[in-house]
Amino acid sequence: MTVPAHVLEALAQAGPLEGVPDLRGTRLFIGGFVALLASIAAGLASAAVLQEDWSNARGNEAVVVLLALLLFLLLGGGIWYLLRQLPRVGERMFRIDAQGMRWGEPASPRVLAWRHACRAPTGFCDVKTEFASSDAIVKRLVFQQAARGGEPGEVRLPLALTVDTGRVLRFRNRAALLRALLLHLATQPRPRLRFDAEVFIDAGIDPQTWEPMPGPRRWMWLSTLAALVPVLAVIVLWPVGEHIGWMVAATVLAMVAGAGAMGWFMHRRYPGLQGLFEFETQPGAAP
């Protein structure tokens, strides 16, 4: 697949691209959590003051007091931590230029030179998205960075491009940053990197034109929710008293059927967004 020349020209003419933190949104996000924790603390304190019958706690007064103090310390510590973050809102950066990208703390950012982006030592794709619930409930963009005298290391970036929501909840120009990042990865010298099609679905970018394309991402989420319907039906409608093993088997079959239906739907609606993409540049275009 060829990257349009005008897309590369626009990227070269744009110069360095700096992430624009959403300061107001981040402060509102922190303030909302502070208000939530304060409301919980106030509610618990009010319940304790208005409680008239403490007969159930007789003999365990010390335990009740200790638990109450521990709970209020946790709530107070959370509020104190969040309030400390307010003066530091915006202290995260994301910069992309012709040489590479920098992200993280401005004083000591992580750095990646585009020439160090490399193919994965194993597998069929080099740039992909992964959902790692053990790390965070977000999808991450994953690709490889060459290391001196060793195996390539993984670079894992949240698709939101923010690694600390307490400092920067989001970048206002996140779509432009992500597009520029993918363009630079796609046009590196040979061997070209291989992209999983799901990268462009998650990023909301048309790989042919490199224009915004949010439709497939929305349909994927809708089809994923629809695929859960058979699973919920099995759980809710399963007869009481039937062997649990059959229920597990039926649930697994429902999950497989739902996943198959989702894949079939996406394939029929977006047949060009399947498999792997490897990009070329037109003769004379700036790589």
Describe the protein's architecture and organization.
- The chain has 287 residues and is an alpha+beta fold.
- It has helices at 5-14, 23-50, 61-85, 174-186, 197-203, 215-237, 244-269, and strands at 2-3, 17-18, 93-96, 100-104, 110-113, 117-118, 128-131, 139-145, 153-158, 194-196, 276-278, 280-281.
- The chain has a four-stranded antiparallel β-sheet with strand order 2-3-4-5, with helices on one face. Strands 6, 7, 8 and 9 form a four-stranded antiparallel β-sheet that branches.
- β3 and β4 (100-104) form a beta hairpin.
- α2 packs antiparallel against α3.
- The longest helix is centred in the N-terminal third of the chain and has 28 residues, at 23-50.
- The protein starts with a strand and ends in a 6-residue tail after the last strand.
The strand count comes to: 12
Separation, N- and C-terminal Cα atoms: 14 Å
Oligomer: single chain
Low-pLDDT stretches are none
Largest sheet report: 4 strands, antiparallel
Shape annotation: globular
- Find the structural class using helix and strand composition: alpha+beta
- Mean pLDDT across the residues is 84
Helix content: 40-55%
Strand line-up of the largest beta sheet: 2-3-4-5
Transmembrane segments: 28-50, 62-83, 219-238, 244-265
Keywords: Membrane, Transmembrane, Transmembrane helix
Task: Looking at this protein, list some descriptive labels.
287 residues; alpha+beta; 2 domains; four-stranded antiparallel sheet; single chain
